Please model this.
Amino acid sequence: MKNQTLLCFDYGKKRIGSAVGQTITATATALEIIKVVNNKPNWGKIELLIKEWQPNKLIVGHPFTLEGDRQEMTDAAEKFVRQLEGRFKLPVELVEEQLSSYEARRELKSTRDLDAVAARLILETWLSENIDQNHRQTEVNREN
Model:
């Protein structure tokens, strides 16, 4: 797998956490929290992040209930994905993200920077799932 830069968003109705990562190191770093005002993301701030990091792909958390059911935020995150795709013409992938905010809160022991850390955890999930999968496929190809 060639190195890719990934930008991840944890979409919320009041705040959007952001994180950046690279596939070559399989690491992610929390960035910042973007305000949502009147149900509209700060598209200018998102555009600045995209220009700064020049990601190959965007990752967005896909929230479901603990039982795996859809909820109001599931639809909101999917709408956000469609808007990202339309505005920035980059591939976007959804990652199931149950309990990312809970895990971020446990890690931080506060709510400061919570959304950005939740985005980092979501991106780490994507990296773990995709880097491991690509590594296994490479091993299978070598054996054949």
